[in-house]
Amino acid sequence: MITLHGFAASNYYNIVKHALLYKGIPFQEDLLYAGSDDLLTVSPVGKVPAITMPDGFNLSESNVICDFLEETYPEKPLYPTDAAERATVRQIMKIAELYFELPSRRLIPYVFSGTQAPNAVKEEVRQVLGRGIIAMNRLCQFSPWIAGEQFTMADIYVHHVNTIVNAFGATQLEWDVLAEVDGMKEWNKAMSETDIAKSVQADSQANMPEFMQHVKALIQAANAK
């Protein structure tokens, strides 16, 4: 059985978990936080998530894991058979990562500390998000799924990216970013109402108090040095 290493409050962890559940691949979970010594034994840089296959093979990086799962378990595919359509799915995922999630992550320290980001940082984040909004409006179809008629890895990926955009980008900027992409809010709501998304979100919320205690302990340790 596959072992999924990481913690449920991580959206990257949840991307892989969602894909495993959708494909119906049996797996067990191993609670590990980023940077732990145990995680370093299965993830070269101690990042979440990582998986261990039944034969002992370890793999990290969420997009790499998902591609590996698609190739290893082709039943119930998450990518189209057409090469151009597959490329479009990956393009949507990459743009969501670079222009939605990563700029929003810059605001995480301010949210966790209960402070407002400097205006210069907010403006930089706004500019990058703005580029992402333009690109996603050009690429996303929502007919009914993000890349067209087929449910794909892009649906899973962008849905969990949006948790970061909503939790950190939108709150600090007072900006409903998803509303700027035609059809995205409705699609995101439909995604959140699927049984798998509900299950993943429930586990994420259950893990959040422990995760926040872990973060606070790291901050206190850093401040004590």
Short overview:
This protein has 225 residues and is α+β, with helices and mostly antiparallel strands. It has helices at 11-23, 37-40, 62-72, 83-105, 108-113, 119-139, 153-173, 184-192, 195-224; strands at 2-6, 27-31, 50-52, 58-60. The mean pLDDT is 94.
Write the layout of secondary structure elements.
Blueprint: E1 2-6, H1 11-23, E2 27-31, H2 37-40, E3 50-52, E4 58-60, H3 62-72, H4 83-105, H5 108-113, H6 119-139, H7 153-173, H8 184-192, H9 195-224
Parallel strand pairs: 1-2
Antiparallel strand pairs: 1-3, 3-4
Helix pairs in contact: 1-3, 1-7, 1-9, 4-6, 4-7
Domain GST C-terminal: 82-211
Domain GST N-terminal: 1-77
Pfam family, one: GST_N_3
Q: Spatial order of the strands in the main sheet? A: 2-1-3-4
Q: From the helix content, strand content and strand pairing, which structural class follows?
A: alpha+beta
Shape: globular
Using only CA atoms, what is the Rg? 18 Å
Largest sheet: 4 strands, mixed
> What is the beta-strand fraction?
5-15%
- From the N-terminal CA to the C-terminal CA, the straight-line distance is 42 Å
The tally of beta strands, per DSSP, is 4
Q: Helical proportion?
A: 55-70%
Organism: Psychrobacter proteolyticus
Domain GST N-terminal: 1-77
Protein name: Glutathione S-transferase family protein
Domain GST C-terminal: 82-211
